[in-house]
Amino acid sequence: MEPSFKFVFFGGEPLAVPVLEKLKEEGLMPDLIICNPDRPSGRGQELSEPPAKVWAEEQGIEVFQPSSYKDGVAKEKLSQGKWDVFVVVAYNFILPKWLLDIPERGVVNVHPSLLPKLRGSSPIRTAIKDNLPEDVGVTIMLLDEKMDEGPTLEQEELPLTKANWPMSGPELDKTLAELGGELLAEILPAWVADELSPQEQEHKAATYCGKLSKSDSELSIDPQRMLAGREATKAWHTINAFVGIGDTFFMHNGKRVKIKKAELTNGGSLRLLRVIPEGKKEIDFNDYLNRLT
Predict the structure, then answer these.
(1) Residue (of 89, 135, 136) closest to 109 by Cα position
(2) Less Cβ crowding at N or C end of the chain, within 10 Å?
(3) SS (HEC) of 238-286
């Protein structure tokens, strides 16, 4: 079933493809997918295609990969068609006002937090790191020129319990992408049909998160002393937050030791299981300790 409206999908990772899959399940296929340019990756620095591009080509959908919105190429491309709505999911370009003004029904964004909480670039990983389960969910909103301040169309909280919190970063990425895709598939046709009323955000209640840095992933750990209590809980949340985006590390004898696997015991202590000492291969943490003695 083809949608009765034309839309462009702007998508980045890791949320774009799971959202696209949910739209596809409901017969909502974009007419154009815009994603990041191919990037060099790996030791050989070979060009790697973004997953959204791979998905689009598998579906036979046209792909556009602008590297800038200042040279006029993107403006000429997008101004050629008549578009009902644009959809933005984890796209890492700031979109200019001329672009926001093109589609008849504006630009709809899937934001992975319960706005106005966690406005900014790292809501998922910040929610894990700072232990904010009450802010975890998705918001379907309208983009304007300000960062995550546009009116909302719908929100859905992700039910969480002590048993499933914290999730690892990749797990929560996927869960919220799928939740956001389902909500978007429900909301998008109604919005295009002018059946929804946008709601102003409660701006005074806003909280913010910036881009996480390498320093945010450093833990204060003495490898010969097990963390317990609040220290252990805080470290455990940080470890889960940085899975898949560089991992956490601690410094020992002037060398960086990356944490690859850990667990929080029933007694509330942090147990390190697998580490990568600087310049070495991954090993069991107990083997690392034995080498210290």
Answers:
(1) 89
(2) C
(3) HHHHCCCCCCEEEEECCEEEEEEEEEECCCCEEEEEEEEECCCCCEEHH
Residues for the chain: how many in total?
A: 293
SS3 category, 63: strand
pLDDT tens, N- to C-terminus, the chain (293 residues) = 456 899 999 999 999 999 999 999 999 999 999 999 998 776 677 788 999 999 999 999 999 999 999 988 999 999 988 999 999 999 989 999 999 999 999 999 999 999 999 999 999 999 999 999 999 999 999 999 888 999 999 999 999 998 999 999 999 999 999 999 999 999 999 999 999 999 999 999 999 999 999 999 999 999 888 899 999 999 999 999 999 999 999 999 899 999 999 999 999 999 999 999 999 999 999 999 988 76
User: Rounded to whole angstroms, how far apart are CA atoms 125 and 131?
Assistant: 10
Q: For the chain, which residues make up each domain, given as ranges?
A: 7-209, 214-292
Find out whether 159 and 151 touch, Cβ atoms under 8 Å. Answer: no
Count Cβ atoms below 10 Å from residue 164 Cβ, excluding itself.
13
**Residue 13 CB-half CA count within 13 A:** 13
**What's the token pair of residue 114?**
């319960």
Dig out the tokens for 85 from the structure: 């709505």
Those residues whose C-beta lies under 8 Å from the C-beta of residue 137, and which sit 6 or more positions away, are 112, 113, 114, 155, 156, 157, 158, 176, 179
The yes or no reply on domain 7-209 and CATH 3.40.50.170 is yes
- Spatial separation of the C-alpha atoms in residues 178 and 157, rounded to whole Å: 13
Range 247-284 burial, b when 16+ CB lie within 10 A, else e: bbbbebeeeebbbbebebeeeeebebeebbbeeeeeee
Angle subtended by helix axes 51-59 and 16-25, to nearest 10: 30
